[in-house]
Amino acid sequence: MTDSIVVENVSKRFTKQYHRTLKQVSVAMMRRQQVTNTFLALDDVSFRVQQGEAIGLMGLNGSGKSTLLKVVQGVMAPDAGSVRTRGRIAGLIATGAGFHPQLTGRENIYLNAAILGMSEAETNRKFDAITAFADIDDFLDSPVGYYSSGMYARLGFAIAIHVDADIFLADEALSVGDKPFKVKCMKKLQEIKDSGVTIFYVSHAAGSVRKICDRVLVLEKGVLGFDGEVEAGIKYVKYDDESEGTDEELGSEI
Amino acid sequence: MTDLLEPQRPRDAASRAAALADVPLVSPAPTGGIRGILQHRYLLKLLVKREVTARYTGSFLGMLWSYITPLTQFLMYIFIFTLLMGRGGNIEHFAIHVFASIMVVGLFTETVAAGTRSIVRNSALLQKSAMPREMFPFASLLVSIYHLWPEFVILGIALFFTGWAPDLTALVAGVLGYGIIMVFALALAVALSVSQVFLRDTGNIVAVVNNFIRFGVPMMYPYSIVAERFRGHTDLYLANPIADAVLLVQRCFWVPTTSDQKATIAESMPDHLFTRGFVALAGAFVLLVIAQRIFNRFENKMPERL
Ligand SMILES: Nc1ncnc2c1ncn2[C@@H]1O[C@H](COP(=O)(O)OP(=O)(O)OP(=O)(O)O)[C@@H](O)[C@H]1O
Ligand SMILES: [Mg+2]
To answer: In the list A38, A99, A151, A205, which could disulfide-bond A147, CB 3.0-4.6 Å?
Structure first.
C-alpha cells in the first residue's frame, strides 16, 4: 500500500488577538502588561494515512480538527513539521463558503469547480450530475444569495463530491442538510470510499463515523490523543454511551 | 489544473492505487508566482469575469453604464475647460489632454485600491482550496484594464474628430506609458494586498495617497506650468513614475491632435521623456520582483488572519 497523507511533527501556533487598536496597545504598554497572546492549536501531531483509508477525526470544539484539515489541504502552512500528500485533494471545509451571492447557481458551480481544480471541460461534463445531486434545478439561474442555507450546503457538497480527487476532506459537511439529503450523501461517501479515495472526515456524530471510517484520530487541545480502532476511538471521546440516543433525537446521525 | 488530455480517472481501489504508484508525495502548499498563475489561467478568467459581471448585475442598462459614465465625464471636461475656464483658449484640445490622462491614472488608482483589498475580500475563496494567492491582486489589474475599453471607445471617437494621426514615436510612447502603469500598479497591489491582511488601515492609507496622486501628475494642468514654476528643479517632479507615464500617454494621444506638434512638445513635454520612461519601467519591474518576495515571505501567515 502507498502512503496518501504523511504528517510529521506538525505544530501550528495561533495568536488570540491580532488586530489591536492604537488605544489597546498604548494602555497595555502603560501598564507594562506582558500577557502571552499565542497558543498551539496543533502540537507536534504525527500520523500516516494509507491510500484508500477512511479516517474519522474527532475531538471537542476547539481541539484543532478544522485547523488540521486546512494544513493537510495546503490552505494553511504549519509553523513546524511537514505535511506531504499524494494525488489530487478535494475539500469541503466550511460548507458553501466561497459562493458569490450575486452570481447565479450556474455561475457559482463553474467558479467553485475551478477553485477545486476542475477544468472547464470537466465541469461541463459533470454539470448535470452536480445539479441532479444538489437537486436545485429550479433555482439554477437565481442568485445564490437567495438560496436557503440547506440549498447552499447541498450545492457545495455536490460540487466537492464530483471532483475526481484522490483525497477527500470533509469538515462537518452535512450539518445543515435535511434527512434525505444526508442519506444520499452517506451513500455517495461510501461510493467514493469504495473507489479507493482516501477520506478524512471530521464529525461529532458517532453514528456516521462508525458507518464510514476504518480508523479514528482524536485531537485534544491540539495534541493527538488517540489513533486507532473506530469503536475504541469513539469510546475515547466519550461519545459512545449517550451518542445513539441523542444522535437520533437531534437528527444528527451524520 | 492544466491537464489538457484528461486521463481516465480510476473507478476502483486497485486501479487508483496503480495510477498513484508513480505520483510523488509532495507538499500540498500551492505553487505561487507567475508559474502558479499560469497554471490557473481558467480560474483567473472566471475570477475576472465574476468581477466584471458583478459590477452591473441588477441594473437595467447593465454594461451600457460603462459607456454612459465616461461619456458624460468627457462632455463635462469640454464644458468646464473649454467654455467655463477658457483654458482651451491657449491649450488646444485640453479636454483630450485631461481625459487621456485621467484614464491612465484611473487604471493605476483603481488597480492599487482594488488590489489592496483583493485578498481580504476573497478570503472565503482563499480558504477553500490551495491556490496561488497572487492571483487576486493580478485579477484586480485585469479587471481594471477590462473596464478601460469603454473609455477607449469614447476617446477614440474624440480622436477621430480631431484628426489624430500618430507617428511611430507617439505609439511607442503610449505603449511605454501604459506599460509603466501596469507593472507599477501590479507591484504595489501585490505588496499592499499582504499588508492589508495584517493591517487593515492599509486600504485607508491607499485612498489618501491616491488622492494626492491626482494632483501630483500633470493631468488637470499642463506640464508647461510645472516647467515654468519649477524652472531647473523639475527632476523631483519627474522622478514620479506616474508623472512620466501620464506624459508619455499625452505624447501618444494629445500631442498628435495639436496643430503644431513641435511647438507642443517643446512647451508641454519634458526633456529626455523616453529615457525617463524606460528607467521608470525598469524600476517598476524591480519593484515587482521585490513585491513578489514580500508576498512569499508573508503569505504563510496570511490564511489565519483572514
Ligand atoms: N485563524 C485563527 N486565528 C486564531 N485562532 C484560531 C484560528 N482558527 C482557529 N483558531 C483557534 O484554534 C483552536 C482550534 O480551532 P479549530 O477550528 O481547529 O477547532 P475544531 O476542532 O475544528 O472545533 P469545532 O469542533 O468547533 O469545529 C480554537 O481555539 C480556535 O479558536
Ligand atoms: Mg471545526
So the answer is: A151
